[in-house]
Records
---
Amino acid sequence: MANKAEFTEEQGAKGTTLRVSGRLTLSNLEDLPQRLDAIEGPAAQIDISAVERVDTVGAWIIHQFSGRTGAQIIGASEEAKRLIALVSLADADVRVRPEPVNPVVRVVTEVGDATVIALRTLLGLVAFFGAILMASWDIIRNPRRLRINAIVHRFELVGVKALGIIGLMSFLIGIVIAQQGAVQLQQFGAETLTVNLVGRITTRELGVLMTAIMVAGRSGSAFAAQIGTMKLTEEIDAMRTIGVSPIEALVIPRMMAAVIMMPLLGFYATLVSIFGGGLFCWVSLEIPPITFVQRLQEVIPITDLWVGLIKAPVFGAIIALSGCFQGMQVEGNAEEVGLRTTSAVVQAIFLVIVLDAFFAVFFSQIGWI
Amino acid sequence: MDLNAPIAVKIRGICNHFGDQVIHDGVDLDVRNGEILGVVGGSGTGKSVLMRTIIGLQRPSAGEIEIFGEPMTDEENEAQLDLRRRWGVMFQGGALFSTLTVAENVQVPLREFYPNLGQKLLDEIAAYKVVMAGLPANAAAKYPSELSGGMRKRAGLARALALDPRLLFLDEPTAGLDPIAAAGFDELTKDLSKSLGLTVFLITHDLDTLHAICDRVAVLADHKVVAVGTIPELLATDYPWIQAYFNGLRGRAAQSAVDRHMAKGA
């Protein structure tokens, strides 16, 4: 480029003189800074009279060179003088990077932080559960404070609107279980046992468990995001000032909706899964629907249904609890809402699966096999 | 102010609408080289939308914009990219990248446009820009979440100045700042615009800012620019919104503060 910044070195009586020419601006610098850095001092003068244009970066380079080598700046135009004065005012000892931390210390600190946060969350969750119980007790003594409208509205959001997606998911899961089971059982000539497999696994475990995961993703996250946003916009503080308890107005309706909707959704999911499995058996294994239903009645004990239906409200409570809890923890900025929503879903699914394991052992022990 | 100064931003017949809602209906405005132009208007008159239109974040449904004599288009070509690096924008909240430190934020545009700059020079540039924007030396290594609102705006300004732009857009620079920080920011804007020869397009609600640093003020109302000029010139018009704005209680208070300041200086 014609206007590229350039310089020449001259040895004079007083020492080295640098003559800079061209445009000393960011877009015309190219490798000039590196080459200037390569010059070891001291230099007597730096002549910038041939510089056509200069910006603050150019001025900084001149200023920095002159400071490093002791060169005197000559031939500066008015504009160059002004900019050099400006950057020299801004020349301070600035630390650009955060102080490096020893990696060992950092790992230990992070593990410690994570432990403290996990314990605090657990404690907070218990405290939050306590607050909900207290609010529930208040409502039991004063049933008129129950917000029926809010609860019914949540029923629709948590339950009715989830029917489509949960139905589709369960239908496909039913087909997958039947298909995968049939492939394995055929090897022993026992493909009729597919009915047992589909019927029992969906009523006992998968119907409710998959529903819980879907509700955690759909509604648990929504609870956290809604309450978190309300926390950010100070709506929750406004409620408190007016004398409305946020637990009563926001958490209890969501909690009740989840607790009541989960068994219904779980039962519905179980039925749809069985329907999907039955359809596969009919089409692929040529087990007619009548036979399929008869076999179901023979092989599924009624306790299997209780196993599923007892777990469902507990899962619902866990999902609503962690969603609302994480929402109430939001503080500061919008980024927090996203983080808390993620934790709400992760926490809910994790707790649901842990509890499911406990339930599995418990029900086996009491003989509901 | 030089009345014959060349035009930095030329806006002609800009129309913007969101659905049925008309925001701009034929906005004409000139920003002269080297001036600080304040843009005022009631809430919802499309001040920010006008700025977003000029910098190409919002596509107008009609109208033309020229910046430094070159037309703005949607094309993603070399010339448009070259145009883009000639302005800096400071958004209302600073809009800093939250995962980067202040210094790294300042370096983002530099790295993007000049990948060959050495790390040492990048660090030096970030350092002096941060100081120039009036931040303390220890702020460069901090993350945006560790800064106060005023410091975040200054960091946003440092990033806007990273490429040595000739044109600077400021969206409500003093909103949310306490009066001392706001006055400090006004001072900084004025100083920098003078020493760097910047043209500043400044959106504000702050009457004190208008009085203190703006060379001219453009008033947006009824979907257009209804008046442009110095504050005395605007006061001479009889447009009701302008009268209410500058002659309202707050407007008069700001004016008398300026008068008192002038009297003390004289």
---
Amino acid sequence: MNGTDAAGILEEISGAISNLEGIDQIKKLVERALKQKHSVTEIIEGGLKHGLDEVGARYEKGEYFLSELLYAGEIMTSLFDVLRPHMKQNVTGQMGTILLGTVRGDMHNIGKNIFGMIAQFSGFKIHDLGVDVDPKRFVDEARRTGADIVGMSTLLTSTLPEVKVVLDGLREAGIRDKVKIIIGGNAVTKQFGEEVGVDAAALDAVEGVEICKRWIAR
Amino acid sequence: MTPRERMKAVLNFRKPDVLPWLESMYEETVLTWFRQGFPPDKVIVIEWEVGRGGTNLYNWPAVKGFDAYTYFGCQSFYGSVVPVDIGPLPRFKLKVLEEDDRYVTIRTETGAIAKRIKGEERTWYSMPMFTEFPVKDQRSWEEYKKRLNPRDPRRYPKDWSKDDYISAFENYQRGVTMMRFNGFYGFGAELMGIAPFNIMLYKDPELIHDMADYWEYYITETLRDAVDTLKDRIDMVFWWEDMAEKHGPLMSPKLFRQYCLPHYRNLTGFLRKNKIDRIMVDSDGNINPMLDLFVESGITGLWPLEVNCNMNAVEIKKKYGDKFFLIGNLDKRELAKGGEAMRREVDSKVPVLKEMGGYVPGADHLVPVEFSLERFREYTDYIKSLLPYE
């Protein structure tokens, strides 16, 4: 196979994902790429990630919305199911590890889950602690997993102070400087992020993942 | 003018003598205020009713709730509402499925399974985590539909005597009279969950079309008697959607046009034929990308216009003029800070919007628990000083 053909099928996969075509149709493209002897890594890097990046870019531009992000996540999950039997090793997690959770007192999980899904498909290993996470657990798990990034979500204004409690806990444990901290959720603003002393406050899941990617790339 | 006359004037872009002010409060906020010195005897609503049980035929005082709105002098959405039950009938049996020291998991009356933090399960401020929803596919939707029968006699009160209700709706003067229902995005997301519903918009268009078709039929037929009876004695429609997040709509405008717009137009057309044309969408989040579509849909009002989500009532007024009446848009976070921050926020919106017309001031969503009683009083005093017209 020549380079043009190789690029062709991967571009086709990428384009089909970014245009949100039918899942079965995109699965067939991935199966074709496998038959053409593309490695799983090539397909993920050259097809899936490009497609997802484009979905994220369109979301940031206001062309796509949550419905499109969620459907893109559904596509990616289905494609990973196709690829998994062909994986010699786990190809996710190479970007680094993100410890993720919704702060104590808050049971919202949609934004956190979308962030986790995009981050995972972008190559991060995700340790999702769920919702209503005790501050001590954030600290203990950050130490245990050796996470590169701690992500906290809070939708409620009443639970914003929990972010500071976790930060204080990380400081007391002596690991604040070893991790980057990112926060997100409806109640979060850039101003709050600066005031409380996190490394970044993301206004949406796509922006959050882009920030994490930049941190790891440095 | 009465509070209702003031509100009707503003909703119809006429000038009242005093601008009405509307708030919506979490019950948890009011309960918090009690701990901060809110006088119970001034806000607890007591009704005298025949004692139950035994031979107590005499009247007995029963606590029915609390009315903080009258105490502060603001209006609410909850005064006089068309008493039609649009929920599933029969209701699912409310049941505790699991319980430990921290959480309780329940099956709700709408058929979802929700996990709540204990101690907060009776309030909505800390939303539960929904772990299961009653509608997952065509089969479960067909099952659920059986509970959405518009002809079920339990939908209307037993005392639905039209003359009495007409008279009640005519005479009510403490605020607007209202009719409430769930919209075409809101009902779907409520029955399937936000993420599954959004995914199904792509994965199973036939199911979504079927749900939207049925919902239009169901809402129209369920409310038909009330609408025919009360007509424009209903001042405002409260159309619940909650269809956006901070970044923008949950459902893209393209999908809205495909799935919702025709039904919006049919339903607003039905209401308009009955002289009901003050139709307000309740949606949190950034709905800016939806506004042109709302105009096309026959929607004429918006609440709460969350500042944190980039909603700006002054900008909307400049762009859309009298196509929308607007309620809210005062940044609750700034109001809750009190002092200069609160005054700056109020001053930046209320005087200019008061002159532009068609605007009712209020916080940009329900008054949160961290808004202290002392600061709410300070805000009350300040905003009330700005309401009268010269």
